[in-house]
Design goal:
CATH architecture of the largest domain: Alpha-Beta Complex
Helix content: 25-40%
Strand order of the largest sheet: 1-8-9-10
Shape: globular
Largest sheet: 4 strands, parallel
Number of domains: 2
Order of helices and strands: EHEHHEHEEEHHHEHHEHEHEHH
Number of helices: 13
Number of strands: 10
Structural class: alpha/beta
CATH superfamily of the largest domain: Glycerate kinase, domain 2
């Protein structure tokens, strides 16, 4: 760290806050935050039913954007409470998901293992650019897919995880058989409980969310415009999943091009120093410490975050 006038760049998990909502929509068209419509944090603990939660609310927002005549729509994927392969979102747009008797399946990923047929509506998508922005590259199913990698965080038991896994596999098979689309192994198909795969049925293109938002906000330009000694980024949890395209890794990659070290603040950290280094991070601090329990951090995240950043900077400056 330089001796004179040290400069620190805070690189949060989302850079949209540095743009006005109006300006963001001017450059991105309609912007839909999946986590604000079908997100994990919207449900109290006793309402987190991983077999039943649905992305229907996200679909309602998408339908509204299409009715409003938007020609470019970005759906930001992440933070979902769902593992329904985006079927709730698609149902809000008129898709029907039927069992072998022609009966509509109930909402949620738990019913998808009984999927036999998909009815596709006519939608005004010819002149619409639809993007799914995601920072994970996980496939729809498999060991690193939506169910086995992320469903346990959403409250799924091991038995429920396997049921959701069977549903995602069945969804991919029926989609390929009836619509001719191979969605299962597309990078990012497993994002947001499989909503990435669901959006592919609408002709969407999956793009790196960090790169999109960083471009819109001119993130890398900060390195050219200001002397920066340390970048502080953040993540809910730093663990083995973080290497699969999470924001801190992307931040570290850009900072490394300019020779700037990166530190991270996270709700929980399960990686050792070597694991952090493998992500390109030089230091990290959890919100939970000897003075802050997980319950305290959730109750007053601003104070916990401030304390963690201050201690991180103090340690960095030595």
């Amino acid at each position: 760290m330089s001796e004179a006038k040290p400069s620190i760049l805070l690189a949060p998990d989302s850079f949209k806050g540095s743009l006005s909502a109006r300006r963001f929509c001017e450059v991105a068209g309609a912007a839909i935050e999946m986590a604000l419509a079908s997100g994990f944090t919207l449900l109290p603990g006793d309402e987190r039913r991983p077999l039943e939660t649905t992305s229907h609310g996200t679909g309602e927002l998408l339908a509204h954007a299409l009715r409003a005549g938007m020609r470019r729509v970005v759906v930001f994927l992440g933070g979902s409470a769902t593992t329904d392969a985006g079927t709730g979102c698609l149902a809000a747009l008129g898709f029907r998901f039927l069992d072998r008797h022609g009966r509509p399946l109930p909402p949620g990923g738990g019913a998808l293992e009984r999927l036999a047929r998909i009815e596709v509506p006519e939608l005004p998508l010819e002149n619409v650019e639809l993007l799914g922005a995601t920072d994970v590259t996980t496939p729809l199913h498999g060991p690193r897919g939506a169910a086995r990698l992320f469903a346990p965080q959403k409250g799924a038991t091991p038995e429920q995880v396997e049921r959701l896994e069977r549903g995602l596999r069945r969804f991919a098979k029926v989609v390929e058989q009836t619509l001719g689309l191979a969605v299962a192994q597309v990078p990012g198909a497993g994002a947001a409980g499989g909503l990435g795969a669901g959006l592919l049925l609408l002709g969407a293109r999956l793009v790196r969310g960090f790169e999109l938002v960083a471009e819109l906000t001119g993130f890398e330009e900060h390195f050219h415009q200001h002397p920066i000694d340390l970048v502080i980024t953040g993540e809910g949890r730093l663990d083995e999943q973080s290497r699969h395209g999470k924001v801190p890794v992307a931040v570290a990659r850009i900072a490394a091009r300019h020779g700037v070290p990166v530190a991270a603040v996270a709700g929980q950290i399960t990686l050792d120093h070597a694991g952090l280094q493998a992500l390109g991070l030089h230091a990290a601090r959890s919100l939970v410490d000897e003075k802050t329990t997980p319950e305290m951090a959730l109750r007053d995240p601003e104070t916990a975050l401030t304390r963690a950043v201050v201690r991180l900077v103090e340690k960095w400056r030595g």
